[in-house]
Amino acid sequence: MLQDQITQYTAEINSFDTTSAEELEQFRIRFLGTKGIIKDIFDEFKAVSPEEKRTLGKVLNEFKQLAEAKYQSLNESIADSGIKTEDSKLDMTLPGEGFEVGARHPLALVRREIIEIFNKLGFSVAEGPEIEDDWHNFSALNFPEEHPARDMQDTFFIQKGGEKGDIALRTHTSSVQVRMMEAGQPPFRALMPGRVYRNEAISARAHCFFHQVEGLYVDENVSFADLKQTLFYFVQELYGEGTKVRFRPSYFPFTEPSAEMDISCTICKGAGCQMCKYSGWVEILGCGMVDPNVLENCGIDSKKYSGFAFGMGIERIANLKFEIKDLRLFSENDVRFLKQYKTAII
């Protein structure tokens, strides 16, 4: 009779006790499995008379709840005790293995250090889109129509012509300077870090994408002397006191006058090596006074305001700081290379 079976199995459940996960699993399969005792009893329950169902229904539900509660209680007891089963190779009582501490990318380290140095001089950080139109990437910065930077050999164009003109991956973060000056009025004192793209052959000294930090300072009575002293302070902070600096006349469409700044090679200490091409000097950035045409293009009165701008490649700075001779290493994601900078985490 069904009532007698339930009474018999209830006594068996109440008397069952174990500290073995294997025995508990057998208990679960025997009573609670898809082909277990409780499933069979419920199947038999369907065939009993309506009068018996009213009596047995409550008893059967209590029987099922008893089996589930017993299994849950023993399962928690075994888990809390941490007892190792015969077939298990994992001892939960052993101390865990700690996660290996990661390392910041060397470019991220240098980028942050550059920003921190200029923060001391009051420079904030500004960012902009990596896909730019012709106006912000070229025209507003005084690039003539025939300038070679507009050629397909130097720029990754996404669209040629169209309603908004040429659309390209930005070739410098100077486009962020234009957006800043268009959106407000001086004074401006900001850094523009970010990734830029140029259609160049990949080698130890060049890549089709790299990272720049550009700076802009526009206010009344800003002079070239302000520019030189700002950059001299930056070099001493980044590479240490005693690092020599020199400025060479140069040309950029968006600055006049323009210069390139060299520092004494930090790898060979001026003696001559492959990095400095045996000259003892390494160029690290270009700079100059913002061309009045650029100020006027951005709606700024060039008769009242003046300013300076500079730009540097973060890879070049990192090359000298960490003595890395091949900039392709920065983008290869070789864990062996990146682990070297674990101690540089701040």
Strand order in the largest sheet: 1-5-6-10-9-8-7
Instruction: Indicate how many domains the architecture comprises.
Output: 2
Mean pLDDT reading:
87
Gyration radius (Cα, Å) is 36 Å
Order of helices and strands: HHHHHEEHEEHEEHEEEHEHH
Q: Just give the CATH class of the largest domain.
A: Alpha Beta
Q: Which CATH architecture of the largest domain is right?
A: 2-Layer Sandwich
Quick one: biggest sheet?
Answer: 7 strands, mixed
In the CATH hierarchy, what is the superfamily of the largest domain?
Bira Bifunctional Protein, Domain 2
- Gap from first CA to last CA: 76 Å
Number of strands: 10
What name is given to the CATH topology of the largest domain?
BirA Bifunctional Protein, domain 2
**What coarse outline follows from CA principal-axis ratios?**
elongated
> Helical amount among residues, as a percent range?
25-40%
Identify low-pLDDT runs: none
* Residue fraction in strands: 15-25%
InterPro entries: aa-tRNA-synth_II, aa-tRNA-synth_II/BPL/LPL, Phe-tRNA-synth_IIc_asu, Phe-tRNA_ligase_II_N, Phe_tRNA_ligase_alpha1_bac, Phenylalanyl-tRNA_Synthase, tRNA-bd_arm
EC number: 6.1.1.20
GO cellular component, one term: cytoplasm
Keywords: Aminoacyl-tRNA synthetase, ATP-binding, Cytoplasm, Ligase, Magnesium, Metal-binding, Nucleotide-binding, Protein biosynthesis
